[in-house]
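[Discussion] Sanity-checking designs against the backbone

I'm trying to build intuition for which residues belong where. Below is a structure token string of 330 positions. I'd appreciate it if someone posts a full sequence so I can compare it with mine line by line.
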């Protein structure tokens, strides 16, 4: 049942009205949409390389919670955005707002926030990929946005302390059932970007068995960066590379780091566990030696993930502003 509209600011009413005059974006608008969006993403990455990684993670964390419906963007109190796993960790929201405004005014279309997240993740990855070695996957245009935020479903996000079978199940629950896609998505996601000390510390100062197959020198480096006695504030402020080797370049470097026992978070190092099922060990070996195979599996995985739980016009809406639903639906 649709409830009374919440009070809107003048700006929001204006945005909604002008937005509503334009046609809903579809394939025929792709050239303009991609031109405007790509320019913004490349400019942002030039200013801060990490933004490529942040846009990829934003899409991933959206897609794992009630599908790729931009529900993560809603500024709802106690909503998804402010749940553990997202709060003070996922970033890129301001850039999404800017892209929404630019595409709407320059292409004169109603573009969904879900379309923007999916296209921006691809542009973000490509912006940090070496030319001629970038992953390419299809992103459909014409998705709709959710009307709600789903904080109650954020348990679907994978956790760094979870065992391999649980992690695989969580990906399978989001329709990623192919082991190669599962491994390539984690390796691709974590070949760029940063993680906070809080995550590294979880494995450093316990009796963590993953440290058995880590490089002792690297463990010493992590301990130096993230001392046990440091405050929670320090752990939230200090970040280290997820892929110690080439953190600013999208490549198969994660797997070389994994082999050397030099990846930051526990679930990543777990991919190198010699006791893993043979199909996992085979995929890790393949991607270490063969970058083309990695790029192919990552691209396939992104397409699978990016099509997860897409909404149509009957279930969603095209938000006028990515941070707010168009009405007060609760
Ligand atoms: C086992 C599954 C996964 C776990 C447990 C996991 C966990 C994490 C954690 C703890 C961080 C650091 C967050 C922080 O310090 O604030 C992180 C960062 C990141 N993750 Fe994952 N992740 C997983 C899979 C993925 C996948 C599938 C992707 C994308 C395809 C991805 C992309 C990223 C990116 C790009 C970053 C860095 C973001 C930035 O620097 O802004 N992750 N992940």
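Best answer:
Here's mine. Compare freely.
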């Amino acid at each position: 049942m649709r409830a009374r509209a919440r009070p809107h600011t003048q700006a929001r009413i204006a945005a909604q009205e002008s937005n509503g005059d334009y046609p809903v974006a579809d394939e025929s608008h792709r050239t303009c949409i991609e031109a405007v969006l790509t320019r913004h993403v490349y400019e942002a990455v030039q200013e801060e390389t990490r933004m490529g990684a942040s846009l990829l993670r934003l899409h991933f964390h959206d897609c794992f919670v009630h599908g790729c419906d931009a529900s993560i963007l809603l500024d709802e109190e106690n909503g998804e955005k402010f749940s553990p796993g997202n709060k003070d960790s996922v970033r890129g929201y301001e850039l999404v707002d800017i892209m929404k405004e630019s595409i709407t005014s320059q292409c004169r279309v109603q573009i969904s926030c879900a379309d923007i997240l999916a296209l921006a993740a691809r542009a973000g990855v490509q912006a940090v990929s070496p030319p001629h070695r970038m992953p390419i996957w299809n992103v459909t245009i014409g998705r709709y946005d959710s009307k709600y935020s789903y904080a109650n479903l954020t348990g679907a996000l994978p956790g760094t302390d979870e065992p391999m079978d649980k992690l695989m199940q969580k990906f399978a629950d989001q329709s990623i059932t192919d082991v190669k896609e599962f491994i390539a998505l984690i390796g691709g996601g974590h070949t760029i970007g940063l993680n906070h000390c809080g995550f590294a510390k979880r494995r450093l100062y316990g009796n963590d068995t993953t440290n058995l197959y880590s490089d002792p020198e690297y463990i010493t480096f992590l301990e130096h960066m993230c001392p046990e006695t440091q405050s929670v504030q320090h752990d939230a402020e200090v970040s280290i590379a997820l892929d110690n080797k080439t953190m600013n370049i999208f490549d198969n470097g994660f797997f070389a780091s994994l082999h050397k026992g030099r990846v930051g978070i526990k679930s990543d190092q777990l991919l190198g566990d010699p006791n893993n099922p043979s199909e996992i060990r085979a995929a890790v070996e393949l991607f270490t030696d063969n970058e083309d195979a990695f790029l192919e599996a990552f691209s396939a995985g992104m397409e699978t993930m990016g099509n997860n739980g897409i909404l149509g016009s009957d279930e969603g809406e095209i938000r006028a502003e990515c941070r707010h639903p168009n009405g007060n639906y609760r």
